[in-house]
Amino acid sequence: VEPEPTPSIGTLTIDGLKNLYLNSPTRTYRAKYKDVNGNDVSSNYTSVWTITNATFDTSKLNYWVEKNEFYVSFEDETLVGKTFTLNVVDSNGLYTPATKSISLLEW
Predict the structure, then answer these.
(1) How far apart are CA 65 and CA 60, in angstroms?
(2) Do residues 16 and 29 lie in contact, with contact meaning Cβ atoms separated by under 8 Å?
(3) Is residue 37 exposed (0-12), middle (13-18) or buried (19+ Cβ within 10 Å)?
């Protein structure tokens, strides 16, 4: 007998563009939580953000977090052409983590 699949609590996605440009205004990425019916339930959760797969020293980025939003910009031209992965999960670990690959570009 096959085990019953674990019911999904919903979906978690990262809302935001995949390209970040040198010396551009701060870009905002938002964690979007939706329940199984597709309703936005983001206000019920607090996000934990991490950066992985960076091809550079992430301390060269300007970033900060406020609940479900991740703010980032960069002014170091040596980072042009580099990439990183932005990851988010709710603080209770109920949702499948979401990821977004971000490319650092020059205008």
Answers:
(1) 16
(2) yes
(3) exposed
Query: What beta strand segments (E) does the chain contain?
Result: 10-15, 19-21, 27-35, 47-52, 62-66, 69-73, 83-90, 98-105
- On whether the CB atoms of residues 5 and 89 are closer than 8 A, the answer is no
Question: Running DSSP on this structure, what letter comes out for residue 16?
Answer: S
Alpha carbons 5 and 25: distance in angstroms, whole number: 44
Mean per-residue pLDDT for 42-67?
Answer: 96
Q: Quickly tell me which residue has 């019911």 as its tokens.
A: 7
Burial (CB count within 10 angstroms: exposed 0-12, middle 13-18, buried 19+), residue 32 = middle
pLDDT (tens digit per residue) in 65-103: 999 999 999 999 999 999 999 999 999 999 999 999 999
- What pTM was estimated for this model as a whole? 0.89
Contacts with 92 (C-beta within 8 Å, 6 or more apart), sequence order:
45
DSSP for 42-64 reads: GGG--EEEEEES-SS-GGGSEEE
